[in-house]
Structures are given as C-alpha cells and as structure tokens.
Amino acid sequence: MSPPERRDFIYRHLHEHRTVSIGALVELLNVSHMTVRRDIRILEDEGKVISITGGVQLNDALRQELPWSEKALINHRNKRALGKYAASLVKDGQVVYLDAGTTTFEIAQVLAERFNLTIVTNDFSITQYLMNKPQLNLFHTGGQVDKRNYSCVGNTAAMVLRTLNIDIAFISTSSWDLEHGVSTPHEEKVFVKQMLLEIARRKILISDSSKYGKYGMFRICSLSSLNDIVCDGLLAMPEQQQLQEIGLKLHIVDI
C-alpha cells in the first residue's frame, strides 16, 4: 500500500470509527509506529484529523469531503436501511428531489421500482441508475460539475431548481448538528441546498449518525429550517431529544 493509499485508509476508517489508536492502525496497515505517526502528521497538516493521546480522531471542522467512490464504502449497511425507510415517505405522483450523495443513491434504488413518480437530481450516479427506468420521469439539474462527487453544483443548478415545484426533497450533508446547523466545506454546494429550502414543500435531511457533530465552513441552514430528519439509531439519545424539542420530525431507523 502506497503512502497516499495508507492515508486514505486511515481517513476512511476514522469516518466509520471516529477515533482509533496508533496500535490498531499499526496492525491494520502492517507498518511501523513511525510510519503511522508520519501519515497522521500529514493528515493533521491537511486539517483532516487531530492527534490525541495514543491515537487519532477526526477533525470535526471539515475542510474536505471524501470523493463519492470512497463515501460509498462507508457505513453502507446503515445507508441502505436509511434509503429504504426514506423511500417509504414518498407518495405516488410526487415530484421528488434526490440530492447528490451515497445515501440518496440508496433511495433511488428503491424508487426505481416505483411508478408514477418524477425524480429530480443533481447526481450523475443517480441519473445513470434511473436512466433505464421508463416508468419514471427523470430530470437532471445540470450546472458546474463536481468531479469528486459526481454531481452538479453552483448557481446554474440552483436556477434550474427555481423553475420547478418539488413535493419532497431529500437533502444530503457531510456535517450537521444543533449548533452549526447543516453545513459544508464547499461553497458551491450551498446554492443548490438553499434553493431547495425555498422551493420544496417538504424538506428532509437524510444522514447517518457518523456525520452528526461535524461542521464545515459554509452554513446552509439551521436544523429548524427542515421538516424532517432521517437518521440511524446510533445517534445519541440526548441529541435525539434535543432535535425533537426544536419542532421537527425525527425518524430514527433501526439498523
């Protein structure tokens, strides 16, 4: 495994486990303590992780997201369960927006077997998957291409959305909590998500619990701007109670 591959492995592993010891990484990577510490130091310089006594943890202040292909490998079982549940919230005849993301891709796979739906998305993977489903109406926003996440972002995509009436929008995120709301490290994503908040009748944040407590530089909205949140049962009970207290509907999905 090359040094960049090792560092990618460490970063992906932390997205699943939040914190990991140096010793565990030495065993997983089959390298020396010195090599692991060197990789961690580079990741720390990039702002992705924070060293702690005897180990390393994710930096809650996100500076960069993982690319789509890597995110798809993380917490897949959780995402599949969330996607199946979220699809059950969709009624026949609705116009449904699926935000770019690996969890919304799971929704698309379930909705692909439905009839009498219109799907709008900025995600190329979702578009490609649904392309051969003739019973569905399918729209892609177009716009500036985000190559890392196989999607379109920016003002052009947002302006296309402005021309539509969306019944239910499933919004993805890499970071969210009560203090910082929904946020992102990438300014271009803000335009699309904020437009959805304006035009969608029902706005649903869908995210696995590993993303709670992180925050990016750019704030999209407060959680109170949403109608629903779909999350897994690994979200801590105090956080669940606080979310319910702000007046939104919290859907906890058993994995």
Automatic annotation (TrEMBL):
Keyword field contains Transcription regulation: yes
InterPro entries: Carb_Metab_HTH_regulators, DeoR-like_C, DeoR_HTH, NagB/RpiA_transferase-like, Tscrpt_reg_HTH_DeoR_CS, WH-like_DNA-bd_sf, WH_DNA-bd_sf
Keywords assigned: DNA-binding, Transcription, Transcription regulation
GO molecular function: DNA binding; DNA-binding transcription factor activity
Domain HTH deoR-type: 3-58
Pfam families on file: DeoRC, HTH_DeoR
Protein name stated in the entry: Glycerol-3-phosphate regulon repressor
Lineage of the organism: Bacteria, Pseudomonadati, Pseudomonadota, Gammaproteobacteria, Enterobacterales
